[in-house]
Design a protein that fits this description.
Layout (H helix, E strand, L loop, with lengths): L1 E6 L2 E4 L4 E9 L4 E9 L6 E7 L4 E3 L7 E6 L4 E6 L8 E9 L5 E2 L3 E6 L1
Parallel strand pairs: 2-11
Antiparallel strand pairs: 1-3, 3-8, 4-5, 4-9, 5-6, 7-8, 9-10, 9-11
Length: 116
């Protein structure tokens, strides 16, 4: 089994930065990629960024150039560095771990609020 815990959310002013962390533990050998999603009130959950086990990254158009996803293999942690934050980035951010041949694992979410 894999456990996923997010941290790093909070309240920040527009233009500020936050770094989210997604720490995985347990049977991490089966993980093939890790993704960050977000869900704003009244909206569907959307993919923000993902990183594969090989280091390939991809971003939603709305965050390109502002957010960076990275991985620290030694710590089994994936980060989402968020710069130049905008009020429309306000959402609950979720980490999802995709495993080979097994079900995806979601974290509990962390709130990010950007004030104007």
């Amino acid at each position: 089994q894999v456990q996923v815990v997010e941290s790093g959310g909070g309240l920040v002013q527009a233009g500020g930065s936050l770094r989210l962390s997604c720490a995985a533990s347990g049977s991490i050998f089966s993980i093939i990629n890790t993704a960050w999603y977000r869900q704003a009130p009244g909206k569907q959950r959307e993919l923000v960024a993902f990183i594969t086990i090989g280091g390939t990254t991809n971003y939603a158009d709305s965050v390109k150039g502002r957010f960076t996803i990275s991985r620290d293999g030694a710590k089994n942690t994936v980060y989402l560095q968020m710069n130049s934050l905008k009020p429309e980035d306000t959402a609950v951010y979720y980490c999802k771990v995709v495993r080979s041949g097994r079900s995806d694992i979601w974290g509990q979410g962390t709130q990010v609020t950007v004030s104007s």
